[in-house]
Amino acid sequence: MTSKFLQKGFIYAFALSAIMMIHSVNVEAQNVGASPEYIKALTSQWTGERFPDGRPKVSDSILERLKNISIEEAWGVLRNKGYQNQYEGDWQIMLPDEAMTGRVVTAQYMPLRPDLEKQVKDQGVEKEGRSPKGGTNSWPIDILTNGDVYVADGYGKIADGTLIGDNLGNAIYAKSQRGVVFNGSVRDQEGLSEIEGFNAWMKGQDPSYIQQMMLTSINAPIRIGRATVLPGDVVLAKKYGVIFIPAYLVEDLVLTSEVTGLRDEFGHQRLREGKYLAGQIDSQWTEEIKKDFLDWLNNYPGKLPMTKEELDNYLKERNY
Fold it and tell me: Which segments are annotated as binding site?
């Protein structure tokens, strides 16, 4: 009896001690903005330079070359790499004939819940030093840098879901020299259209102002329609849709797509000339066609989109 009593007493004391230890731990509130460590963990396959916030710093030259890649080419490369959920279509576009590329800054919005909104505001202002003035929908804009694209999930809300108007649009363009991709809406579209160079992919526009919705996170993973988007992704936005590309794949995607474009140009030219049959071009090429393609590249009449060294290294590793 004494032994059982002592054993029970020990178990009780141990449990009480564990409870007291748990209550003594200071619980940190969840950040509104993701930490650099978290962003680095999300994008761990990137091995290049990073911004102070942890996002991959894909080069400006790659962003510029990406503009010339078709949506289909980019989509095909990503599918072959196992990324099957990186495309979203059905957009309203302010400047549909102009492509936009850039490094993604994400923001998540949700229907308003007062207790959560208070926690977000308290955390953002008191712990993270964010602006106490204006709405929290200005917070993602405050951290933009040149080359960034503001990508926000406004859960498709149109009326009363306008994430920006022309004032915030001017702020976005001044900081990023880019525009936005919103699973949501904008207001003041006439004013936004007057911002030279600003572009927007959105689900709608409405004269109402934002209400009954709240910001919940910055630079965390979000969903844009069919696509999963991470901070530091690279966006390719064109009139035919939007592709979100993992940073570590962008350079390979650009080069692969550029070579595919050259192959297509060569193939189309040879078909028009009647040199080969369609089946010969559409199947694995013979040694004769490969040699013809290399000779065609060496005498390419225009400027190749990549360096000769990049092209040579690429072709060495491919069985085309």
Answer: 165-168, 187-188
Q: Same domain for 53 and 87? A: yes
* Model confidence, pTM: 0.87
pLDDT for residue 3 is more than 60: no
The residue written with tokens 């926000």 in the block is 152
Structure token pair of residue 28 = 């940190």
Please check whether residues 234 and 312 belong to one and the same domain.
no
pLDDT at 14: 46
What are the pLDDT digits (tens) for 99-136? 999 999 999 999 999 999 999 999 999 999 999 998 99
Residues marked as binding for substrate? 165-168, 187
Buried b (16+ CB within 10 A) or exposed e, 294-310: eeebeeeeeeebbeeeb
Q: Please state, in angstroms and rounded to a whole number, the distance separating the CA atoms of residues 169 and 193.
A: 10
Of 191, 224, 247, which marks where a domain is finished? 247
Mean of the per-residue pLDDT values for the chain? 91
Per the annotation, binding residues for Mg(2+) are 188
